Amino acid sequence: MMFRKLKMLAPVALAIPLFAGGFFLQIGNPEASPEARKAGAFVTVKAWGCHDPATATVTATAIGVVNGQRREIPLQVTRLSGAGMFAITQQWPKEGKWVIRLVGHNGEQFTNTLVGAGPRGVERARFKEDMHPFVAADIDAMLR
To answer: Among 35, 37, 52, 123, which residue has the fewest nearby CB atoms (within 10 Å)?
Structure first.
């Protein structure tokens, strides 16, 4: 009987380390934050997971294709008053197809997110996240 209980709990015990210590970037709607709205934010980003969100840093780059030309534009990321909260304004042309690459660090923790961006805002259907850096092929696939 005891062996059967242990056997049933084993998958749960094995799964816990997969999520422990994670570090993620959550994409948000600036309309939900008066501070982000006041800043004219296009998107908000929240660093969360098993860490102190106040010490997280986020960088962002808009990567796109305009008139057949690939462009990369470093974006200014504004820290908001909430711990781990950031805002990004639209700093890239409305023309073309764009992907926003977000990179988060918190001590030795790393995460990155790719999200599509169109003239009306973030395209949540075009979204990828990983704890390993994305390669050019990942970005190219989202720009197709």
So the answer is: 52
